[in-house]
Specification:
heterodimer; A: alpha+beta; outer membrane lipoprotein receptor (LolB), chain A; 12-stranded mixed β-sheet; globular; B: Rna Polymerase Sigma Factor, Chain: A; Arc Repressor Mutant, subunit A
Chain lengths: 292, 181
């Protein structure tokens, strides 16, 4: 007699065999589509592609994605060792349970040639928002509203913006958290990544305990996707609250002749912060034009 | 996941290698979903191609908010649903698939067992109401939460969860019934 769990496993194990010819045919079409898209994109907007990827926001997004994912991975793998003050398993639990989050990111290095000073990111079930600042002014905003399922991107310097409706379901920080903390990935991290305890240190006036790692395995599958990868991560956690207060990273990755270089500090964390849902409603000034 | 975001970044930069890897990474699960929902391998392959081509075409403005696999699986489910509405018929009996499963097994006995299991499960899934079938695949093959499935199907998370529970119960009863007879 099969139980519900047996049925679930059977469905999970269901594999439609891949026909080699069909696979090659589809991959061929996709590579053509990629080339076509790159060509059309370059012809339509000669600099847009590079601007998007070279923009501070894009760089921050890439770096933040890498760093945030690594941070959350770090929280899990470090849970194998509990220090005298910080219980790392509790840190991992609290971070994953946090319903919302505000943080500041500052990035330097070859990926951030001085176009931004810092970015503030907000996550909650109501949406996600990033504001990039330079000389005290917001230069770029990106906001996703969970209720309207709309993402709006604003280039304040150019006074232009665009919005698009999202087809897929939008989830707040909790869902992102689940995404970033894929249990399989993290179990691998726990078992394989080496780290060193840094002991106590006062960070921003708060007594913390820290950890560091240089093990490239912390980046998971990324190791297999790049030609070289150097990672250094440092995490400081408030001994009292058991929440992270500062995270520093240096990542240098090379793939296909391109180098991703990032030095980043994430701090000013507000875990489980109360964020007004209006934070995820961008008001566009009248003199901004809508880019189609 | 980190590797999703990295791959996405590379594809945005025009990396063919990253695109191949992305496709290879999700091909089997997405193809399994499409084939199960449509009951035809050729249509499933077309759906997968279509979903990936559209994904490439919109990649500049694409922002990953959940798992990439979940996003692509939702696109596959949407496309399969559209095709099904258009065709107004739901093919069943994925014999071709079962034959291919059997041919990949190490020995004739294992091949026969795998083929039989694949056939029984595929047939049972095909007999479910479409929404239950889709919900089970999105949850178990793509790892979507009921909240995400509800958003994709335009129903509440509770409804998505109910569809899942009813579907699993029906599968149990069908597969146990067959086993006992």
């Amino acid at each position: 007699m099969k139980r519900a769990r047996d049925i679930e496993r059977m469905v999970q194990d269901l594999r439609h065999p891949v026909d080699a010819e069909a696979h090659d045919r589809v991959v061929g079409h996709l590579l053509d589509a990629l080339k076509r898209h790159q060509t059309q994109s370059a012809a339509r907007q000669p600099h847009t592609g590079r601007m998007i990827m070279k923009s501070p926001m894009a760089k921050l997004a890439v770096a933040a994605a890498i760093i945030a994912a690594v941070v959350l991975g770090l929280f899990e793998f470090i849970s194998t060792d509990a220090g005298p003050g910080v219980v790392w398993a509790e840190v991992a639990r609290k971070v994953q349970a946090s319903g919302s989050l505000v943080l500041r990111i500052r990035e330097t290095g070859s990926l951030s040639p001085g176009k931004s000073d810092y970015a503030i990111k907000y996550f909650s079930p109501a949406g996600a928002r990033t504001d990039v600042y330079k000389d005290g002014q917001v230069t770029f905003s990106q906001c996703t509203n969970a209720e309207t399922k709309t993402t709006t991107v604003v280039y304040h310097g150019d006074k232009r913006y665009y919005s698009y409706q999202r087809g897929e379901g939008i989830d707040g920080f909790l869902e992102k958290d689940e995404d970033w903390t894929n249990p399989i990935y993290l179990v691998q991290q726990i078992l394989s990544v080496e780290h060193t305890e840094l002991g106590e240190k006062t960070v921003d006036g708060i007594l913390c305990e820290g950890l560091e790692t240089r093990d490239p395995a912390v980046a998971g599958n990324v190791v297999d996707m790049v030609d070289s990868l150097d990672v250094y991560l440092e995490l400081w956690v408030d001994v009292q609250t058991q929440y992270p207060v500062r995270f520093e990273s240096r990542v240098v990755a090379e793939a296909e002749g391109e180098v991703l270089d990032s030095e980043c500090v994430m701090d000013q964390f507000q875990w489980d912060a109360e964020i007004d849902p209006s934070r995820f409603e961008l008001e566009i000034p009248d003199d901004y034009y809508k880019q189609m | 996941m980190l590797d999703d975001r990295w791959l996405l970044w590379r594809v945005k930069r025009g990396s063919a290698r990253a695109l191949r890897r992305l496709y290879d990474q999700y091909e089997v699960d997405l193809l399994t979903m499409a084939a199960s929902l449509l009951g035809r391998s050729d249509q499933a392959e077309d759906v997968l191609q279509d979903v990936f081509v559209r994904f490439i075409e919109s990649i500049e403005t694409f922002e990953l908010t959940g798992s990439l696999k979940g996003y692509l699986a939702t696109c596959v489910a949407n496309r399969a649903r559209d095709l099904r509405r258009r065709d107004r018929s739901r093919p069943t009996g994925p014999l071709e698939t079962a034959e291919r499963v059997a041919s990949r097994q190490p020995g004739p006995l294992q091949g026969a067992i795998a083929k039989e299991q694949h056939e029984r499960l595929s047939d049972a899934l095909a007999q479910l109401p479409y929404e239950q079938h889709e919900t089970i695949l999105l949850h178990l093959k793509a790892g979507l939460t009921f909240r995400e499935i509800g958003a994709a199907q335009d129903v509440s998370p509770k409804t998505a969860e109910s569809r899942y529970r009813y579907g699993i119960d029906k599968l149990r009863s069908m597969l146990n019934g067959e086993a006992e007879s």
